[in-house]
Here is the input.
Amino acid sequence: MLNKALLGRTLFALATLSCMTYAKNGVFVGVEYGNSILFSNSVVPTHLNPPRNTESLTIKTPALMNIGISVGMQYEINDRFYIRGYLHYLYGLGIDSISYSVINGTNTQDSVLDKKTTDIHNAISAGINAYYSFYNGDISIYVLGGLELGFNVALSYNTTSSASQSFSKTDFIMPINIGIGLGFEDSHHLEFKISIPTFSTTYAQSENVTIRNLGFLVGYYYLF
Here is the structure.
């Protein structure tokens, strides 16, 4: 009777372990979608005596629609802790349209101009993230943190009814990633991440305007 009870408990434990989701080693690919909040800081010189600059902070949300892809390797240290090294490409698109009046004088009719601004960001980076799974069951629940190094090419196009301009700027980037995720059947992962910029980038049109893009991304990753 004792042997049967022991055998039953052993089979139950093996069945439970077989259903639990753990990390594993392998190659992974991922796709991401999200938006970002733009923090823009402007420094404008004034003609005061003594001369000094004035600063203004503008917050715009959503600023960019982001679509990303990543590919890399995952290495399991134990059943709760693992790391990923990867290459990451993130495409950002922002379109803003405004109308404003141009005063032509007292004897002529004011004109209205439509201005359309299109901002395109292409960020390419290499990164490493660390993962800690605080729950392993039919699904795993984990937190993550990491760092990326790379560069971003920002393109800006301004178009009005009378003229058009384009600007470009390349900057070094080093975002910090934090987030939370779910793992299913070892191979499927859903994650919510926040990408925090460590450096401000100079706006493509002016050396007096710097920007920071705080990114929010939802991603799906498949581990082979």
